[in-house]
Amino acid sequence: METASPRSDPPKRRRAANPSTVLSVLGSAAVGVVVTWWISVVQRVPVHADADLASVRFGFPLPWITQDHSSNPFVAYPQEVALRLTGRTGISYPTEYDWASFAGDALIWGGVFWGIAMVGIPALVRAIRGQER
Asked: What rounded mean pLDDT belongs to the chain?
């Protein structure tokens, strides 16, 4: 005589991530890092007095680089200050980095890029194709 054993459900398999989704996220993260760096390098920060030069913050939307430009004051204000990463001029610009804010900026810009490339453009293409029919 056979005894009825409770039927066990087969183990649930985790669905593997779609390779194209993984690549799009990694690509967007790389774009986010590049855009974050580029914004900081080309950004010009307005200063209105000598006191502002002691702590000039670069990065957008989250400032992640702070430089001391007080060793190079201007004659007249307001002025715009650019990020200085090399010592070509012989003037020291002490620099501090906030890597958490850098990561935040990279995530923000990567997310914007992903939204445009993976959601916005396909939706626009579908809308255009729908109007052609």
From this structure: 89
* pTM: predicted TM-score of the whole model, two decimal places: 0.77
Q: Give the Cα separation of 64 and 80 in Å (integer).
A: 18
E strands, 30-116, in order? 44-47, 56-58, 65-67, 79-82, 95-97
84/21 Cα distance (integer angstroms) = 37
Low-confidence ranges of the chain (pLDDT < 50): none
Return all residues near 83 (Cβ < 8 A) that are at least 6 apart: 40, 41, 43, 58, 65, 67
Q: What local confidence, expressed as pLDDT, does residue 3 receive?
A: 61
84 contact partners, CB below 8 Å, separation of at least 6 = 67, 69, 91, 93
With residue 29 as reference, give the H or E element that holds it: helix 19-42
